[in-house]
Amino acid sequence: MEFLEGLDPLLKSYWYIALPTSLFFLLQTILTFIGFGGADADVDMAEGHDVADAPFELFSLRNLINFLLGFSWTGISFYDSIENKTILIIISVAVGIVFIALFFILIKQILKLGEDNSFQFENTINQTATVYLTIPESKSGVGKVQISVKGSFHELQAMTEASEKIITGSLVKIKSVENNILIVDKL
């Protein structure tokens, strides 16, 4: 810290902000990559708060760190280049805000990569399936169909309202779902 002794007070302030902020950012990044303190680590999980919105909290520790990183390192980098110190501070603040905006954009793009592949019976409606076990007529019993939903193969219970049974190997179209049983029609 001896190199800070002879510096101008504004430059010294930038350094006093940059060093601990950079250290904290580095520690925060390392902890995030090893699994401690994800995007929602600094968010108070109050009742009814959606975890998916956590990275988009405007006033959070993570956003403060991002702002201070942009602010301080811009001030240090352009201190000798920009003579007017008021303009330097304004540019530093603007770059700090840009850092927050870039973080929001980055997180939004990362969240787009997530895909919900959980099975839901509603995804089978209007799909075609193959009868695996004969389906009795007029909802008098339950048979089974095989169907692929979102790339995953499922064997599900099925019934038909038709007056004739649907034999194994027939193609059917799913009309609706009742109590997790598919209602089908022969194609």
Automatic annotation (TrEMBL):
The alphabetized list of GO BP terms reads: proteolysis
Q: Which residues form a coiled coil?
A: none
> Keyword Hydrolase: yes or no?
yes
Q: Which InterPro entries match?
A: NA-bd_OB-fold (IPR012340)
Q: State the organism's lineage.
A: Bacteria, Pseudomonadati, Bacteroidota, Flavobacteriia, Flavobacteriales
Name the UniProt record assigns to this protein = Serine protease
- What residues form the membrane-spanning segments? 14-36, 64-82, 88-107
GO molecular function ontology, one term from the record: peptidase activity
Kindly state which keywords UniProt assigns to this record, in alphabetical order: Hydrolase, Membrane, Protease, Transmembrane, Transmembrane helix
